[in-house]
Every structure is written in structure tokens, then in C-alpha cells.
Amino acid sequence: MSSRLIGVGVGPGDPELVTVKGVNVLRAAEVVVVPVMDTGERGRAEATVLHYVPTRKVVRVVFALNERTDRARREAAWDAAGERVAGLLREHGSVAFATIGDPNVYSTFTYLAQTVAESVPGTVVETVPGITAMQDLAARSGAVLTEGTEPLTLVPVTAGAAVLKDALAGPGTVVAYKFGRQAGEVAEALRETGRIGDAVWGSALGLPEESVRPAAELDGTPLPYLSTLIAPPRRDGGRGGKL
């Protein structure tokens, strides 16, 4: 039988936001891999998984999750993680990989799956969708992501604040991920494009340290790396005005 590698989205951090299918897959898998940083602390994915499966099934695999400057170190970490998971697949046949958010949206799972598929030919790669941070922030803040014909643009601010500013100059709602370290530049871009009034940001959603605040309160102080921003467009047409 073919080996199965299943990427399971476990949401932004609130264990109650893992889907029923996600929980069933995690419990059915012989092994559940969770990504950890090389510093060893427990991440959101691991903390969420441990609400549903026993510790004995969980295997911690080190990734250079936030490494952007040292490409060689990042590639080496991916290779080592891929080989570790490939070994688990050869031993167990079925491995689930838990990732925060959704496995097909800016997820470490993408790189892992590519590496493992090369190491273990014939591996079947599947994904279970998860609730994203922008969905959770919209629910917690009351922000409406889209109406009618509005587009939705998702920007990782790790690509630079200029990319965000270009998106803000366009139509529809703009969502920014991973903007915490550039909070000052993000606030400036929101003000320059007239978008700051209705924008909201959040971090640690669903966790004890959760923060959900108006973007107008941004003062340039660095925020947690995984902060999320929602900047809706102006909606002046009344109900159904964007249809």
C-alpha cells in the first residue's frame, strides 16, 4: 500500500476551531508530526493537537520556521525534517502533519510534502483544510471580509511593506499576515491610503494572550510576528451596495 502524508490544518490556535474531519484524521493517523523551532518551545500546532491525541503519538520535528536570511540553513532544516518524516512514513505508512491555519495557505507543509515525495516515491499527499487567521479575526472583530463583487487580497508582509501599500491602493479588502515586526510601516501605509479607520488587527487569536484592536491604535511598537490585519474597503452604498 502507498504511504499517506496528510497535512491537517488546525486553525489559528483555538482548539475548538479544529474541524471534525481534522480531529478524526489526527486520531486515526499512526503518527502526528508537529513542527517546532530549533529553540524547542511548544508551538501553536502542537498545543492544539495535544487537545485531541495522546502525547505518545506526537513526534516533534524541527523546522527553521522563521528563517528568511540564511537560505542554506533553511534548506538544510527542510531536508532534515523531510528525511525525518520520510523515515516515519517508511515505518508507519500513515503520517499526519499538523499546521496552524490551512495547509495550503503559506504553510510549512508545502515544502515538507515536496521533500518527502522525492524521498518516498509513490507517497499519497492529502490535505484537510483548516480555519485561517483572517477568518477567525473577522469573526472576533466583526469585520466583514467581502461583500458582493469585492475582491479579497492576502499579502504576507514578509514580502515588504511596499507590497502591502500597493494592495491597499486597490479595491476590496486587504488582509496582511506576519506584519508584527513592521507594524510602524503598516500603520503608515494604512494612513497614506486612507484605510486605517475601519482596519483591525489581531494576534494570539483564541489564546489567553489574545489581542484584537483597531488599527488606528498602532503606534509603531513591534507586535507578535504572527499578527494579522484586516483592512476593509469603504462601503457607502448601503445594504447590497457592492452587488
Essential attributes:
elongated; five-stranded mixed β-sheet; five-stranded parallel β-sheet; 243 residues; alpha/beta
Brief summary:
The chain has seven helices and ten strands. It has helices at 20-28, 44-49, 71-92, 108-119, 133-141, 161-168, 183-192; strands spanning 4-9, 31-36, 58-62, 94-99, 124-128, 152-156, 173-177, 200-203, 211-214, 228-231. α2 (44-49) links the parallel β2 (31-36) and β3 (58-62).
What is the strand and helix layout of this fold?
Blueprint: E1 4-9, H1 20-28, E2 31-36, H2 44-49, E3 58-62, H3 71-92, E4 94-99, H4 108-119, E5 124-128, H5 133-141, E6 152-156, H6 161-168, E7 173-177, H7 183-192, E8 200-203, E9 211-214, E10 228-231
Parallel strand pairs: 1-4, 1-5, 2-3, 2-4, 6-7
Antiparallel strand pairs: 7-10, 8-9, 8-10
Helix pairs in contact: 3-4, 6-7
What this model shows, in words?
- It contains 7 helices and 10 strands.
- By secondary structure, it is α/β, with parallel strands linked by helices.
- The radius of gyration is 19 Å and the shape is elongated.
- It has a 5-stranded parallel beta sheet with strand order 3-2-4-1-5, with helices on both faces.
- Helix 3 packs across helix 4 (about 110-120) and helix 6 runs parallel beside helix 7 (about 185-190).
- The mean pLDDT is about 90.
Largest sheet: 5 strands, parallel
Spell out the helices and strands N to C.
Answer: EHEHEHEHEHEHEHEEE
Number of strands: 10
In terms of structural class, how would the helical and strand content be classed? Answer: alpha/beta
Percentage of β-strand residues? 15-25%
Q: Judging from the principal axes of the Cα atoms, what is the shape? A: elongated
Show unreliable segments.
Answer: none
Task: Tell me the radius of gyration.
Answer: 19 Å
Mean pLDDT: 90
How widely separated are the two ends?
50 Å
Q: Enumerate the strands of the largest sheet in spatial order, edge to edge or round the barrel.
A: 3-2-4-1-5
